[in-house]
Amino acid sequence: MSAVAKTAISRGFEVETITFPHLSKPLPLESPVRPGTVPRLLCVDDVQDADVASLRAMTGFARNIPSQPVLLVLGERSTLHHTHRRELAELAGRPYCRTLHMEQLPPTAVVRMAAQQFGLTLSSSTTAELMQLAGDNLSLLKALLADYQRLREGGAVAPSVPQVPGACYREAVLSCYNRSTAEVREAAQAIAVLDEYSTARSLAEVVGTTPENAARTLTVLASAGLVANSRFRHPVAAQAILSSIPLQQGSALRRRAATVLRTMGVQAVKVARVLIAADHTDASWTDFLAQEAAAQALALSDRELAVKTLWLAVRGMPDGARRAETLSHIAEIQSASNPEHCAQCLHEARALIGADALWQKQSSLLSEQMARRGMAAEAVAELEALAGRLDSRQLSAHAELEADRLLLCGDYPALTRTSSVRLDDPVRITAFSAASNRFAAVWPLVRMLTSEQPDPAAAEAASKALYASSFTENSAPAVLAALSALLYAKEWTLVHSLTDKLVDEAAVRRAPVWQARFLAIRAEASLGEGRYSHAAAASEEAMAMLPTPSWGARFGGPLASLLLARVMTSELSDARRRSAQPLPTASLDTRHGLRFLYARGQVNLAEGRAEAALADFLTCGRLMVAWGVDHEHILPWRLAAAGAQLLRGDQEAAVDLVDERNTRLEIPGQPMSADEGYRSAREQLYDVLARAVECGELVESIRTLTLNETAPPSARPARYRIEDRFSRYLNKLTFSERKVAMLAATGSSNRVIARSLSLSISTVEQHLTHTYKKLGVAGRQQLRAMIG
Fold first, then answer.
1. Where are the beta strands (DSSP E) in 156-260?
2. Which of 304, 177, 144 is nearest to 243 (CA)?
3. Does domain 730-787 have CATH number 1.10.1740.10?
4. Nearest-angstrom CA–CA distance, 769 and 473
5. Which residues form a coiled coil (predicted)?
């Protein structure tokens, strides 16, 4: 019509334009005849919105056109109502009346318009896609070209057409939508909600009309360029319509749509999304949401949808027990993605059914969350109380509770002495392992922590448990414990290969908590292999994946790995900055906190702060002694502390620490070997450390000694000779004989010695007999004089 008006003006016509409003009013049409012979063009748009009186006035006026210098142009759009067609039908057969149908713009015209109005150069394929997306609607096409221009101005090079629709297209869609009748707008809303399940029949059921009327509505929307194959041509169009619906009206529409979709047998998660958007449910939907929809969401690894579905179900549950059960289910799902929300759900469930009932149902989850929050001692007390209420014949239940308790002990070594399971009792361990896969995977870690030497049997058991376990939310803590046991056994290559697979599995299941913790294990394995850049990358990725509160007391683990990796790659500025990061509460009560103290000591040592390094190493050692896990394969704190003592100039203290380390590394039953021809074990260690201090390579030397457990042989002559008056006698004794001899020299009786060392009195007597014979003494008095 604009083109007609422009042409008419150029030819001397007087032009007048009339557009019918949505609210029909009588339209007075005066005769356009005026004095003179100037022809007139009267453009009347949106005729479909005219009232009957105005239509009749126009037809009457049109019948007199042959005697007037007037050109009348009527514009109409497709509509559900055909009143205007009946009124205008009598004009169709008159010779001076013509009907023009709008044809699709040719691609060449679109290319020309894009170049002239928008400065765009379009390929033939892009032009065809844009025209198809606009659906022959010039307004939509211009909006798409405007959005395309914005993308190009923003730096996008030849964006794909599905990415083009933006704000301009959205506004054009809303303009078409708002100019439609109420019936068409209601249908458009239903189509946007039904999406891929929109058909004439489903649309009719949602809006409450007949399939025939729904089909005509789809035709109207298709002619407007918005709909194709009963769906909006682009998601942006559907989103624009949905955003325009008032809240209450949209909620009611979605509830009706959900009912229709459920009747059609649509996938439960699709129905759940509609109900979630409606933000409303009642008791009739709770079973469907809590069971069918949530199960499907979890099968698709969509935890977020499963949680939203279950929360919606909880709102429709009047029964407290069912609400608590559903809240517990939400907590299980959230434990792998959002531990803070998990704890909140458990708190609400406990308020509904009480702590005792909740512990009976969720002991593993509760103890895991309490360990994260530094409440391990309280969790152990609850587990013990729960175990006390079980029948002794319930072996499987006892094994599961003991697995929970050992998991706590694995993180909090101070609790190892409270465990009711004797880890040196193979019969009990075999019985519990047969009853519980989790127990079979967990006990090797505690065994490694409490054994003076890495236990090959525990390492083999951990390996078997890992290959026999599949990764799930319930098995993840036990899998982590088995991996940690293999780390202490120095099976770094095996751990690395296993964590590669487990990290991928956790990513597929969208379980960032376990993915981050597996990455932290991988970082430790990379450190053991000497792959420091890989260790740093894995540690940083693990820490970035979870906020610090979600790590809780375990945050010291990945942070320690990052510090050690930075030290070994000489990135000391970043290591210093990271080491100043505060740890969450209770971190230093965990084995992860021990590693952080050791790593921070290494940072201080690398930067020459001997006093600060020594303080960290000694604190680490005191905690290990107090917890009963003071073993070199856990953390070699004595070796590091000896290096710090040498750095600060205290050679005697360094020698004492070297002696202690060598004594603890000695295999029971075998005497320490004294290399009289070259250097003793402690002289080798002392010499290596002293040379490292001199050349500034102390950290690297400690790392090498930790891996080798002994000083590497050297062809250089000994620079130091370390002697004391007792070593030549003590070196003749085995590890066990030396401990007995030292206590006997202090005046302890055989009974006291037996109780202190957990030996029988006869064993103590045998050790003393061998000691007297080897040292050539007659009794305790001479023994005391000889070894002091």
1. 227-228, 231-232
2. 177
3. no
4. 56
5. none
